[in-house]
Amino acid sequence: RFNLFKKVPTIKSPCLPRLVQLSHLHTSPNSQAPVPALPEKGGKTRHGIIPEEIFQLLYPKTGVTGPYVLGAGLLTYILSKEIYIINHETFAAACMGTVIIYGVRKFGPDVAAFADKLNEEKVQKAQEVKDLAMTSLAQAVLDEKKEQWRAEGRQMLFDAKRNNVAMLLETNRRERVHMVTNEVKKRLDYQIALQTLHRRMEQEHMVNWVEKNVVTSITPQQEKTSIAKCITDLKVLAKVQQAKATA
């Protein structure tokens, strides 16, 4: 009726080792998925130690009473074949198990509540440490971003300093060019003034020399003749002016 121990036929194929080797090479996307978190509380059990998953596994094939029949059959088989022999240690173990079960049922909730309280305190302390670390790390991230922003602005500052240095160098160059221009202009003005002075002195010397020679070349007779001629010219001019005035 129960096909629990049905023999599975083995497959003998020369390609099986090769397929096993290839299965290690091809990984599914689920293998890259993150590992799920462990549950905080254990699963459901029956009679204190038997997991609920065993009953759920046997229900489709054995029904509701299948797990109990299987357990009773295994116990009967072990006792009938004397795999396990009942002796005084069995009764001692039964008494100890009864005491342990009673203690767990009696004091288990209080101990569990105390342990949960301690666990919550530890979790709270760990959470505080985690929050503090997260806060410090977030602040460190903000500081790092601010430093990166300052580093970006530092390039602009360096560019401004380079421009200032270039402007100072250009100003200094222009000042030197202006100074050289003024010095050259002063020297040219000096040369022009010197040439003008030489020309004026030459002209004055020439005028003085000509005047001196002219004065020395005039005789007394020529001087008298010139004076008479000048007087005659003045009289003629005076008559002409009187005639124009009367007209």
TrEMBL record:
<keyword id="KW-0472">Membrane</keyword>
<comment type="similarity">
    <text>Belongs to the eukaryotic ATPase B chain family.</text>
</comment>
<dbReference type="GO" id="GO:0046933">
    <property type="term" value="F:proton-transporting ATP synthase activity, rotational mechanism"/>
</dbReference>
<protein>
    <recommendedName>
        <fullName>ATP synthase subunit b</fullName>
    </recommendedName>
</protein>
<keyword id="KW-0138">CF(0)</keyword>
<dbReference type="GO" id="GO:0045259">
    <property type="term" value="C:proton-transporting ATP synthase complex"/>
</dbReference>
<keyword id="KW-0007">Acetylation</keyword>
<dbReference type="InterPro" id="IPR008688">
    <property type="entry name" value="ATP_synth_Bsub_B/MI25"/>
</dbReference>
<keyword id="KW-0813">Transport</keyword>
<comment type="subunit">
    <text>Component of the ATP synthase complex composed at least of ATP5F1A/subunit alpha, ATP5F1B/subunit beta, ATP5MC1/subunit c (homooctomer), MT-ATP6/subunit a, MT-ATP8/subunit 8, ATP5ME/subunit e, ATP5MF/subunit f, ATP5MG/subunit g, ATP5MK/subunit k, ATP5MJ/subunit j, ATP5F1C/subunit gamma, ATP5F1D/subunit delta, ATP5F1E/subunit epsilon, ATP5PF/subunit F6, ATP5PB/subunit b, ATP5PD/subunit d, ATP5PO/subunit OSCP.</text>
</comment>
<keyword id="KW-0999">Mitochondrion inner membrane</keyword>
<keyword id="KW-0406">Ion transport</keyword>
<comment type="function">
    <text>Subunit b, of the mitochondrial membrane ATP synthase complex (F(1)F(0) ATP synthase or Complex V) that produces ATP from ADP in the presence of a proton gradient across the membrane which is generated by electron transport complexes of the respiratory chain. ATP synthase complex consist of a soluble F(1) head domain - the catalytic core - and a membrane F(1) domain - the membrane proton channel. These two domains are linked by a central stalk rotating inside the F(1) region and a stationary peripheral stalk.</text>
</comment>
<keyword id="KW-0809">Transit peptide</keyword>
<keyword id="KW-0375">Hydrogen ion transport</keyword>
<keyword id="KW-0496">Mitochondrion</keyword>
<comment type="subunit">
    <text>F-type ATPases have 2 components, CF(1) - the catalytic core - and CF(0) - the membrane proton channel. CF(1) and CF(0) have multiple subunits.</text>
</comment>
<dbReference type="Pfam" id="PF05405">
    <property type="entry name" value="Mt_ATP-synt_B"/>
</dbReference>
<dbReference type="GO" id="GO:0005743">
    <property type="term" value="C:mitochondrial inner membrane"/>
</dbReference>
<dbReference type="InterPro" id="IPR013837">
    <property type="entry name" value="ATP_synth_F0_suB"/>
</dbReference>
